[in-house]
Amino acid sequence: MKTAKKLLFLLTLIVSFTLYSESTSAASIDQEEEIKTIRDYIENSVDELNYKFEELKSHQIVNLEEIQNLIDSHYNENPAPEVMLKSNSLDIQDVFPELTKENNKAHEESKGNLGVFINTQKETNELGTVFTYKNDNSDYIDVYLGKTGDISILEFKTVGQSPETVGQSPEIQPLYAQKYTTVQRTTGISYNGLGAQLFTLWAEASFKYNGTTVASENIDGNYKRHMAGATLNLIPEAMPKTRTVSLEGYKYAEVYSRLRYQGGIGIKWAQLTITDATLEAMIGCTVDGSVYGGLRAI
Question: Which residues form the signal peptide (predicted)?
Fold first, then answer.
């Protein structure tokens, strides 16, 4: 009797283990198929977008609205597969493990600065392609399309004259007089691999300078949460604020907007998948009137 019970117990274990192994194997196969479906969709989408962004460069003037319309139109015509929308167990690291490691390394090297990262990719194209569109000598838009499907947009734009300069003639101002820049804006926009716009973050200001000192004027800045990012936990921290920066004997005035992101869902910023970070858009100026802008994850 005891021997029969032992045999029955062993048989039950064997059957259970076999069923579990078959179930695990089937789940593994299903996940591999899901990964292939997602990878194929992203790679095909990136190929098509590369062609469309390149074609857009033939236009003499390109504005932000045209770029966003191109992105929206592409994803409306090429919706993501259902498995990509429903899968909660997969992330971009499962689909592109090696590219994710390279992205994280590049993020560390650029110290979270999107502008630095984009300038590097302009030279190497290792992780994606950068498309630069210009409106005039100073205004430009950089669009980074990553091989993992994410899109980051960095816009540096003149949004208006400083009120102090309206009606003035710069030619007759003495050299020691206060001078003013136009109102400049830095904007950062983040899209995920589904083509969904998550949020927009921007900062703007004009500056007065005289070769010795510089100060910000007409400051503004804010963020916008988009429908696709409605569930993201976005916390505005500074909308906007000013600061004075001193580096290696040089002085700068900067205006910045900061946005805190906290959550379990990773988003791409400066090509790093983050779940908890502060994002910053800034605009700054030197004492000689040179204006610059930037975006970074802190």
Answer: 1-21
Instruction: Give the pLDDT mean for 263-288.
Output: 69
The answer to whether residues 240 and 277 touch, using CB atoms and an 8 Å cutoff, is no
What is the secondary structure of 250-294 as a DSSP string?
Answer: EEEEEEEEEEEEEEEEEEEETTEEEEEEEEEEEEEEETT--EEEE
* d(C-alpha 247, C-alpha 158), whole Å: 26
Residue burial 82-121, b: 16+ Cβ < 10 Å; e: rest: eebeebeeeebbebbeebbebbeebbeebebbbbbbbebb
d(CA 135, CA 141): 9
* Confidence (pTM): 0.80
Q: Which of 107-111, 120-124, 179-183, 277-281 has the highest mean pLDDT?
A: 179-183
CA distance 201 to 239: 10
What is the CB neighbour count within 10 angstroms for residue 54?
A: 11
User: Does the pLDDT of residue 276 top 70, yes or no?
Assistant: no
Least Cα distance to 71 among 207, 278, 226, 209 occurs for 226
Polymer length of the chain:
298
- The alpha-helical segments, DSSP class H, found in the chain are 2-56, 64-77, 82-86, 92-95, 97-110, 114-124
Question: Quick one: pLDDT at residue 255?
Answer: 96
Answer whether residue 147 shows pLDDT above 50: yes
Q: Report whether 182 contacts 207 (CB < 8 A).
A: no
Strand intervals (E) in 178-249: 179-180, 183-191, 197-209, 214-225, 233-247
Instruction: Give CA 283 to chain center in angstroms.
Output: 17
User: Of 6-10, 147-151, 189-193, where does mean pLDDT reach its minimum?
Assistant: 6-10
Query: Under a CB-based contact definition with an 8 Å cutoff, are residues 162 and 182 in contact?
Result: yes
296: nearest Cα among 141, 38, 118 = 118
